[in-house]
User: Fold these one by one.
Assistant:
Number 1:
Amino acid sequence: MSKTADVLNELDSKNEPALIGYFPAGFPTLDASIAACIAMCEAGVDVLELGVPYSDPVMDGLVIQEATEQALSNGFKLKDLFPALRAITAAVKTPVLVMSYWNPILQYGVEKFARDLKDAGGAGLITPDLIPDEAKQWLDISDELDLDRVFLATPSSSKERLATSANLSRGFVYAVSTMGITGAREDLDRKARDVVAGVKDSGTSTPVCVGIGISTAAQVAEVNSYADGAIVGSLFIKAYLAGGIAVLSSTVTELKSGSK
Amino acid sequence: MSEQTNLRSQEGPYFGEYGGRFVPESLIAALDELDATYKTAKADPSFAAELAELNKTYVGRPSIITEVPKFAKLAGDIRVFLKREDLNHTGSHKINNVIGQALLAKRMGKRRIIAETGAGQHGVASATAAALFGLECVVYMGEVDTQRQALNVARMQLLGATVIPVTTGSRTLKDAINEALRDWVTNVEDTHYLLGTVAGPHPFPTMVRDFHSIIGIESRQQMLDDYGFLPDVLAACVGGGSNAIGLFHAFLDDASVKLWGFEAAGEGIDTPRHAATLSKGKVGVLHGAKSYMLQDEDGQTVESHSISAGLDYPGVGPEHAWLKDISRAEYFGITDDQAMQALKALSQTEGIIPAIETAHALAGVIEYGHNLPAGSSILVNLSGRGDKDMETVGKYFGFLGSN
């Protein structure tokens, strides 16, 4: 069973919107990122995405690129991820998923990474550049450890691929709302509805959440009207840069409450 | 090597454990479309005919073979032959792949091509093909490289391309590829990513190899027709690996022919400043494929260094990784200085100015040719001409003074 899916399903049954918040580990420093993540959870995010900084983040827009670059230049190491995860999951009950490009995990060792992730209280993994076709090792170990694994579904994915993504994802399916990289956009693409509908058509009971391009409470509400959650990242980094934890928390509260 | 008779038949997505498609789901439809279009084109005689006609009347193929006896004396008692890809239109082998992919872009109905470039050779070739076929062209180039290669930026602009300086990460080729991938993820419906080397996700390593394999196919026939034997050794420089695989591929199943690839050892293979991915890298995933790469223990890509911008890349094509592992090809490091001395040597012994990239292969011939039995022969892929490098060369040897 997936704690992440439980949280999302419970909100759904109460007709409450779900907010999934991203923040990079080690940004601007490891301790500051732990505090920021705990604050986000306390302010109301329902699922936390803890990002692993990576030298070549092809799926990320400028805001996240610059934040993760700063984390790396401030000395973030992969082994720091686990104590950070432990500190966050000890402080709050919110499910925490790690989001990482594949090469850091490959170098750490897929199985070891999965076990250490589980030990530190992590719920699972979002893999932006790992498609199910290449994921044999991760599929096996995540089954063994009952970890969430989130694959992407996109506007260009075929019906068959949407079904594969839905069937193999656990926790939720990450529906990409536009053909683009992360970063807040003013108009959320209508294509998001089609992707969510396509995933739901496969008959899956796994929740479907929409990300990439969400920056207002109205968008969070809109997304939650047809999907099981809204994923927000760049906006939270901008909020933190604008005013630290205070503005970060109030932004979370605003997105969450404005959407009720 | 019991499978040796079958080495040429590798069609991807995997070469041994290497290759694959480690990219966001957003790109899979485009890669599938490209793969399907390429397979259809490959089976279509009219595509082959169109490509052959362009190769003959636009690129200037077949490129000739030149024997260089005075240069060969520097490498012992051997014969050295050059496959003259430097004589192609735009001055390097890069045009072979660009023409092929531009034809595919048109078949797919894409109106826009994007490309990455380091030194600017692939960017210039892409801008050239875009002008020829009436496509919009955007070239991503690390900000550092736009400054090092200002003349090539001007060439691309003259050809009608837009050059976008990349200011993220290390601001070099690797980051230009990241930015091109981001553009492609966003504009995949009307845009083809014209990747310039045999790296990246499937089908790029296979397709780019196939478009360059004409180098080896022509060479093999020319050696048999004009000299009556196959060379004992093939030599080529390796950055991403496109010119090397282009030469090697036709010979993969000729067991008597040794394959030597020369990587950039920069300031020294035991210093941190090199680009010797196969010699010093570890297996990982970069830019969509599993292969060797330069990385730290956390899997963060490490910046490469080479005096030659075209070899200054921390990854390498997956087929090379496989050829190394099965010991069909050998890879060696050549320092900046060895390459520059070889560049000067070929210029002054034979009147042929090679690109700094290519000079790594020539230095390899000088370094390792001595180990061959007397009378042995080496065929070198003279992958590009050196005109673009005159500023670097001039400063290095003091012809232009130093800064």
Number 2:
Amino acid sequence: MFNTDTLNALRRLLLAMADDHLIIGHRNSEWTGLGPILEEDIAFSSIAQDKIGHALGLYSILYEQLGEADPDTLAFMRNETDFTSCQLVEYPIGEYDFSLVRHLLFDVAALIRFEDASHSAYDPLAKLARKVKGEIKYHVFHASTFVKQLGQGSEESKARMQSALNQNMALALGMFESFEGEALLVQQGIYKGEAAIRTAWLGEVGAIVEEAGLKMPDAEKLEPIYGGRKGFHTEYLQPLLDEMTEVFRIDPAAEW
Amino acid sequence: MNIQSLDPRITRLGIDAEEKNPDQTLQREEHWETYQVFHQKKRGEKHSSVGVVHAPNAEMALLFAKEQYARRGETVNLWIVNTRDVLAMNYDDYDVFSTTPEKMYRDPAGYKVNDKIAAYKKAQLDV
Amino acid sequence: MYGGGYIHDDQKKKPEMQAEDPVLLAEFEARIARGEKIEPRDWMPADYRRQLIRMIEQHAHSEIIGALPEGTWITRAPGFRRKLALMAKVQDEVGHAQLLYSAAETLGKSREDMINDLINGKSKYSNVFNYPAKTWADVAVIGFLIDAAAIVNQVANSKGSYGPYCRALERICYEESFHLKQGHSVFVYLATGTPTQRAMVQDALNRWWQPIMHFFGPSDKMSQHTETLMRWKVKMASNDDMRQQFLSMYVPKIWEIGLTLPDPNLKKNPETNQWEFTEPDWNEFYEVIKGNGPCNAERLAVRRASEERGAWVRAALKRADQHYVTPLA
């Protein structure tokens, strides 16, 4: 149905999305048991689980439909340079403000991606997107409620939210790095395209930021931090990959 | 010296192993207010009381209730109510209900006429 | 499910049993004897309230501290299935803490006071969580055997007399059945896997056996006080009975896959139908309670740091017109 170039572009898209979700899911899972209040700990853990579940769904399409290795191999046996996750997701969890704002910026983009993908001409992606977009709706609801309230909370929380937003913005713009063959996917109705997602994202994030009483950094004046989609990563990814595979590597042939 | 834990997450947090701030205690009501949570499993079923969340306001309470009380199984809807808005009876006053089960005139089981009908039918046959 | 059978009660600090109104006390005891539950706003003896707060609070602390040893392996769990299961399991433990703190709050102690007592070392939690989870196999032993031991205790407690605690335990026990299954699954995969995997799980079992034997606490001294707690259905089974039940249910599941336990004297006496074993080192047990276990300091420092780092979030969202009311159920 699709030609080789299109299929290769599709592989790149799915791998980038899967890697993003896998890494942010791992990062967010680090909060389990360490959150600011029990109730939030529980909520944040669910969101992290969902992200890892979405990564699994995306790797499964690559495995079942596109001839790639099985999800565990894809997720846990590749080299750092083979990962095409954006750099935003790699950073350590930092303080709660950083993790929360990253969660907002990532999830608004994820919701736009998956809502669009639910009408994708590539049926396996459309099916997955229809199944999981409700979860992402909750993720955005969670993040935006928190950010709005902390943005209007104490002096400290306002300042923390603003500084986390400033800190995250150039990294977040790196989510929209274009990739080879992207235009083919857009032409064939498989995918909305990074530029269009970025435009929609700026509008939606801007509205939430405004409601939170915070100042939206000027995206046009920022240099997006690209590189992730081409396998260039920060110093933080390799140690995380080492952790993720530490048990596996004891005996890669074993069943765990 | 920061804690070097077996848990890499903890090591990364950079917690000072020596620091123990004696003033560091949670203040009163630092964990906010309480909200009662009501869960509806399916359309057509009633909402049932399932427990409590601590939250700073109703919107956040709903956000928290979703994951604490609806992370497994089916759910179609949740309600939350600030605990202070619930007026509950005292268990001590249970005696106001104590004669209710005896009021059989309100109960379908309080009306039995089959024996009358049977007797009437029998009498008719005997005539 | 993490509450140990052993509820630490410092005898030196214990107030004298208060004299209670004999009429109210008789009504209260008659209600329990009829199998009815006690609800939050009921009259209850001061000692009943005190013991329940202590028990539920220690159970809640055990859940939240118990999230730390298993959390050690969250970023390292091998593969999607194990990763998701471990995250969900540890999340449940935090959820259990939330449910249990709420149940204890209905007795009149605030969550803040309970957490303060935890991080300042005044209130105890189960000793097992003061031991390190050194390898992935520790996740198997904790998830399978510690959860199993806790289930024995909690199923007994779920038949107790205090309504809110029973309701919390009902939900907790349901979720625990998943924990036990996932723990057993990891345990069996390791035990039936490669020689390296099998050696890992045997090693973990050897290290955890003594803490597991400590779990239910030393033999109860049958005192008048214990009798009262049993009559009030606060304490539902003796420590020895629970330990015997645990051994009967789970030692065969360890032996059936050819693993061993580091106690040559462990066997069931066919005549008495009781398990015989070497007494674990009870001095170590009391040392760990005092704070001298291998991980006490780290566990509390992490808990303290988490509370401290979350303080700005909680403070920022606290409304001026907020008004805390003790939860209803």
